Amino acid sequence: MTDSSDKSQNCCEQEINKIYEYLDGAVSKEDVETFKKHLGECTDCTQEHDLEVMIREAIKRSCCEKAPQELKDKIRISIDEIKNKA
């Protein structure tokens, strides 16, 4: 791989990792704009984003019960711990 493709791949990895935060509304306005711009320029990341949107929509349709807040908090803590280890 060339340096430019390494940079591009690294950039895409960073943006793909933001998909979940973006869809959860957990990113700053500045990051939203950066993320949207990247999606407009990168078909691979757009496909990943669209796939995640479809998965979330399918889950919403098939799951009628809301998770208790305590469970949501535990999941978010676990996600944060995993991110901090990476």
Automatic annotation (TrEMBL):
<keyword id="KW-0804">Transcription</keyword>
<dbReference type="InterPro" id="IPR041916">
    <property type="entry name" value="Anti_sigma_zinc_sf"/>
</dbReference>
<dbReference type="Pfam" id="PF13490">
    <property type="entry name" value="zf-HC2"/>
</dbReference>
<keyword id="KW-0805">Transcription regulation</keyword>
<protein>
    <submittedName>
        <fullName>Mycothiol system anti-sigma-R factor</fullName>
    </submittedName>
</protein>
<dbReference type="InterPro" id="IPR027383">
    <property type="entry name" value="Znf_put"/>
</dbReference>
<dbReference type="InterPro" id="IPR024020">
    <property type="entry name" value="Anit_sigma_mycothiol_RsrA"/>
</dbReference>
<feature type="domain" description="Putative zinc-finger">
    <location>
        <begin position="12"/>
        <end position="45"/>
    </location>
</feature>
